[in-house]
């Protein structure tokens, strides 16, 4: 038997040929025009691009919140086409974690209750107790678990939201501008925590960000323009900043 190689690893995410059109009256917005994206387990990918380039649309499709008009999405080698709404909901709950700009915590639940909520919904409460301890430690919120969201800072709220996204041990975590409501210092801390979760616990993360510094925390930056991938840079490349300047300049 050969040892597994990168080439034989099943990707956490394989999206191929994604198209999405929005119809608004007489106008059709072709928001995605054939996007391919493969993410390996344990990889951290940042998506950048100008406003309206299709970043949120892409994350919605990858999150199975909306269906592509064309193209396919597989999670950990499992196709998602043709699943009915109930099956899609199950895949979302069991395989995906979401982090939003606005945190979206339940205000009258404690941090602990917010984090374990997806596990309770998935009937995995027992398994969640152990993961809660690990996640709270990894995210530095152990001493905040009995606070309600209103008693937490923005950065702490977002860390609770990240713990919630990870409680069911998802194949993929999707984050759309998770630092958009945070000051730059706190935003940087949140990205650093995602980075260390990827390094220490093998999380797999796709994050949309406008912040170059934040994007440089990832392994790879994918740049969208007009609904298509305009370029890609590895953050360990010596000329990554020059490559990014080129993308940003258009
Ligand atoms: N529900 C919708 N109905 C109609 N058009 C939409 C809808 N959602 C997005 N669009 C359009 O699709 C295009 C891509 O939008 P999207 O939200 O994906 O951009 P984005 O890159 O996330 O931008 P931003 O950086 O401003 O968040 C835009 O032209 C947008 O107006
Ligand atoms: Mg967006």
Estimate what percentage of residues fall within beta strands.
25-35%
Fill in the CATH topology. Answer: Rossmann fold
Strand order of the largest sheet: 6-7-8-3-9-10
Which cofactors or ions or other ligands sit in this model?
adenosine-5'-triphosphate, magnesium ion
Q: CATH superfamily name?
A: P-loop containing nucleotide triphosphate hydrolases
Report, as a whole number of angstroms, the end-to-end distance: 47 Å
- Secondary-structure-based class equals alpha/beta
Mean model confidence by pLDDT: 93
- Number of strand elements: 10
Short description:
With 250 residues, the protein is α/β, with parallel strands linked by helices.
Key words describing this protein structure:
single chain; 250 residues; alpha/beta; Rossmann fold; four-stranded antiparallel β-sheet; 8 helices; binds adenosine-5'-triphosphate; binds magnesium ion
Describe this protein's structure.
With 250 residues, the chain is of the alpha/beta class. The chain has one domain: Rossmann fold (3-Layer(aba) Sandwich), CATH 3.40.50. It is built from eight helices and ten strands. The protein has a six-stranded mixed β-sheet with strand order 6-7-8-3-9-10, sandwiched between helices. Strands 2-1-4-5 form a four-stranded antiparallel β-sheet, with helices on one face. Strand 9 (220-225) and strand 10 (228-234) form a beta hairpin. Helix 4 runs antiparallel to helix 5 (154-166). It is globular. The structure holds adenosine-5'-triphosphate (ATP) and magnesium ion. Adenosine-5'-triphosphate (ATP) is lined by residues 22, 24, 29, 31, 49, 51-57.
